[in-house]
Amino acid sequence: MRKYLLFTSIFVAISLFAQEVTNTMQGTFNTKAKDELYNPLVFDGKGKVTITEFDENGYEFFERNDSVIIFVEKTVFIFKKEKNQLKGISDWVDNKVYKSALKSFQNQLQTDTQLAQRAKWLSQHYDLNLKNTADWIFNLDEAMLQEKLIQNEKDNQVLCDEGFDEGCKIVFSYKMAEQTGGMMEMLEKSEAGIEIKIKPNKTIEKLAQRVIDLGNPDGYGLFYSYYYFTGEEEKAEEFLQKGLDLGSAYCSELSLNLALAELENNMNTEIEETE
User: Fold this and answer.
1) Residue ranges per domain, the chain?
2) CA nearest 69: which of 92, 52, 100, 39?
3) How many Cα atoms are found within 13 Å in the side-chain-facing hemisphere of 224?
């Protein structure tokens, strides 16, 4: 169970064309829906948006044409812009309407080249790894799917080489899967409870380190996954703790999943002892 949760955490379901994008929208949008979990949406004009009153760090977003796409953990919230309103069209926010007190959308001038580049990378990341991926994962035959995955890894490697941390994380997942015979075989082993071990691999280590070097502490979580499956659990725990100390959302997710898996194992043990 622990290995299955770990692999599903490090794996992101794995299409690409560039458009002019921005991440400079600013302002507060509220919904009148009662007991709405995600409210208000506050855009800072610098690539981040908070989605609750208690959200301190915020999530990344980009605008493209009349769409606003927010990256929330392992999913995206997608909105259509209409006058001074954002209308949800994706899971979690479907048919929900958020309205600004202003009469139109407001955007700051884009003067930060790094933020502008980040918006472009996020747009490519969405097209490559999140947009319509379920369709081709479940509808393509095995040969076409394998071809698609190979190309997807190459495209993410390009983003990684350019300096996009999320691209590096996805290539890391591919390389981990290659050590166990491929993505599908790895997940099948995890679900079946078959012990998974991999050999030390410098390429995988360099990918995790690159994520850290690019300023993303999730790289420590990648190192945890890597060292756990090479059998160096003590070293793995050290990297996990370092990531937690630096506020890595991925490490927090790993830690929670591990705690839940341990709780489940303890409960199963107690049930067996009482039978």
Assistant:
1) 2-13+135-274, 25-109
2) 92
3) 26
In DSSP terms, which residues pair with 87 in a beta bridge?
Answer: 80, 97
Looking at residue 168, its amino acid is C
Note the pLDDT tens digit of each residue in 70-104. 999 889 999 999 999 999 999 999 999 999 999 99
Q: Which residues pair with 54 in a beta bridge?
A: none
CA–CA gap between residue 173 and residue 12 (Å, rounded) = 8
Name residues whose C-beta falls within 8 Å of residue 63's C-beta, 6 or more positions apart in sequence: 21, 22, 23, 24, 25, 69, 81, 107, 119
**Chain Cα centroid distance, residue 193:** 25
Question: Using CA atoms, how far apart are residues 107 and 5, in angstroms rounded to an integer?
Answer: 40
Mean pLDDT of 265-272: 63
Q: How many CA atoms lie within 13 A of 92 on its CB side?
A: 15
